[in-house]
Amino acid sequence: MGCGQGEFLKVLSEFPVEVHGIEHDPRLVELARAQGLGVAEGFTESEDTLFPGGLYDVFLSFNFLEHQPDPNVMLQAIYRNLEDDGMGLITVPSFEYIMDHSSYYELIRDHIAYYTFDTLLSLLERNGFQAEECEVINRDTLSVIVKKRPQMEAGNLLDCYVNLRREMETYMKYLEAWNKKVAVWGASHQGFTLAATTKLGQKAGYIIDSAPFKQGKFAPSSHLPIVAPEYFHDHPVDAIVITAPGYTEEIAASIRERFGKDIEVRAMRSNHLELI
Fold first, then answer.
1. CA–CA separation, 113 vs 136, rounded Å?
2. Which of 1, 66, 182, 221 could form a disulfide with 61 if both were Cys (CB 3.0 to 4.6 A apart)?
3. Tell me, what's the pLDDT at 58?
């Protein structure tokens, strides 16, 4: 990245690897090609920039990142042009060295940003890279070897939402067919979300919670009333769905002790509605 007229590419060509370079300056591209080097004219204009010859296994960026007006865009573009197990080597001038030696003469106008290890690693982490090795070279340069971190798939959450919503709808139809009433136990963010995004919020009569400061209020979106456990005795239901994952067993035991063993108790287990 930012290979100039190919000084480092010539070194790499001595190794058993296929080397490519990207350079923004057309004059330098011409000089590199004249030496028989595979250099393409280009720049990371956007995160979706495609590099010719990709996907790549390794990228190199030698004292180039500090020139970038938007380093996030550059790093995102690199990330998207790497194989899933891709790695990279990045060097930048050390701002720590400049400060430690009061070297104001190291500051130049085309260095838009200066980095410490803390700020550099934070930038890399935000853009999908994890640092494998860090070192100072030539006293004044930070060197970091990075590895591409796999992206988390949001599709799994969407699948969970669709499946759980379908499962909850089926359960609510079963209760309705048998003329059974249902309540929720747990005025938590989990309970609020499930009531707002599934049929549970439409079919449940109320939400039970032992915390007095929650009682007498209403759940957001579903507007289910939040009541004390004693409310059950005057407004009994046939089934209770527990939506407090950290306390499921304790709540289930409390339900059977307070309300009897005939209550049908179900609870959220990861991404599944389970009979307790």
1. 18
2. 1
3. 94
